[in-house]
Design a protein that fits this description.
The structure holds two protein chains of two kinds. By secondary structure, chain A is α+β, with helices and mostly antiparallel strands. Chain A has ten helices and 17 strands. Chain B is of the alpha+beta class. Chain B is built from three helices and five strands; from the N terminus they run E-E-E-E-H-H-H-E. In chain B, the strands form two sheets. Chain B has a three-stranded antiparallel beta sheet with strand order 2-3-4. Chain B has a two-stranded antiparallel ribbon with strand order 1-5. The N and C termini of chain B lie close together (11 Å). Classes of the chains: A alpha+beta, B alpha+beta. The interface between A and B is medium-sized, with 16 and 14 residues.
Chain lengths: 300, 77
């Protein structure tokens, strides 16, 4: 099997600037083209373990510099989906984060064979914890710590894919998006962590992406059984508290975090109800990563 | 307030309950509602014709009926 890592940085750049690469992430293949050096840098650094495939692609993405007068004054990048511009251009420096955000958009708006929850999801011994949370709750920091030091497998940092036919969680391991202070926190907390260059002044502040563990990427075909739903909230210095949630509340909060719950209608309701029935929900507060990891290891 | 009520036609009352709280999918609006045990029992009774006009006219039910109507789950008949 050919992987991104089998190409040198120069070869990868040539492919991206020319015919593109068929990048396999989980069960999705993206035909990605871009002549922009920072995109090739990011792919080379973070996607070395991912397979390259030929043939069909689920998504066709191009990251290009728009041809406008502004390009001389303030260089920009545009993301094209199926050749069409769907998003506002961003400063050129944000080209690699734009790829990550664009691919998230592709999955969350197109993969309707799954119920998709805006949540991180990690697994140990076949059982998965879903971590839904709004921005700023410390979800990605916690996810990075769990997979970087806690021995959990990364299914996804951002998109929990619930299979409608059997209720299993389908992995989509990709780089973990870290923001602002959590970049430094994880760099110190996870030894040997590999991160993309921090990009400042994005809509999310400063962002950097953490490479997914190779084992998680290799096991991208291995689904997991949902067992817990943990709504995290980071509070500096706070002691760990974990308050069990009534199932009906867990259901309602999960539904609010779904991308396509309404679209799936009764089918989405049933899938989510089945998930809630087999999972225990918690409101979880943490201030220290070591203590948070100890809680996850104590889950019954 | 009307004294006889029925489910809005088309409601299948797809629901799931745990520990006395229920979630219900509204087939017509696409909304999901969090309901008490009493509300769910009333909806099921209306579906099954298991409640009399006299019972529905009881003052204690007025607020609950008004809430279920606002959620487009029931209508007067």
């Amino acid at each position: 099997m050919t992987t991104v890592g089998s190409l040198t940085r120069a070869q990868l750049g040539e492919h991206l600037a020319g015919p593109g690469i068929h990048l396999r992430t989980g069960r999705f293949t993206t035909l990605l083209r871009s002549p922009i050096a920072s995109v090739a840098d990011g792919i080379h650094l973070l996607y070395g373990d991912y397979p390259l495939r030929e043939g069909f692609a689920d998504f066709h993405l191009d990251l290009v510099r728009p041809v406008t007068l502004r390009r001389w004054l303030r260089p920009q990048v545009t993301l094209l989906y199926d050749g069409r511009s769907m998003f506002k251009p961003l400063p050129l420096d944000q080209a690699f984060p734009m790829f990550e955000w664009g691919l998230n958009w592709c999955v969350s708006s197109r993969a309707n064979r799954y119920l998709i929850v805006h949540a991180a999801v990690v697994e140990k011994a076949g059982r998965a914890v879903i971590l839904p949370a709004p921005p700023g709750s410390g979800k990605s920091t916690l996810c990075a710590a769990l997979v970087g030091r806690g021995g959990w497998r990364l299914l996804s940092d951002e998109l929990t894919l619930l299979r409608l036919d059997d209720g299993m969680l389908h992995p989509l391991p990709r780089p973990i998006s870290l923001k602002n202070a959590s970049i430094g926190v994880i760099r110190e907390y996870v030894p040997g962590s590999v991160m993309s260059r921090a990009v400042t002044d994005t809509v999310k502040g400063t962002v950097a992406h953490l490479r997914a563990p190779a084992d998680s990427v290799a096991r991208a075909g291995e689904a997991a059984l949902p067992a817990w739903v943990v709504f995290p909230r980071f509070e500096a210095g706070a002691a760990v508290t974990a308050e069990p949630m009534p199932r009906a509340d867990t259901f309602m909060q999960l539904a609010q975090n779904c991308f396509n719950y309404s679209l799936l209608g009764a089918e989405g309701f049933t899938a989510l109800a089945d998930l809630v029935e087999r999972s225990q929900g918690y409101r979880f507060r943490y201030g220290v990563l070591d203590e948070a990891l100890a809680f996850f290891d104590s889950l019954p | 307030m009307a004294s006889t009520w029925r489910l809005v036609p088309g409601q299948a009352l797809l629901h799931r309950g745990w520990d006395g709280a229920f979630v219900l999918y509204n087939d017509l609006s696409g909304d999901t509602h969090l309901l008490s045990e009493e509300a769910m029992a009333l909806l099921l009774a209306l579906r099954d014709g298991d409640v009399t006009p006299e019972e529905l006219a009881a003052l204690e039910l007025a607020e609950l009926l008004a809430t279920l109507r606002r959620l487009d789950l029931i209508e007067p008949c």
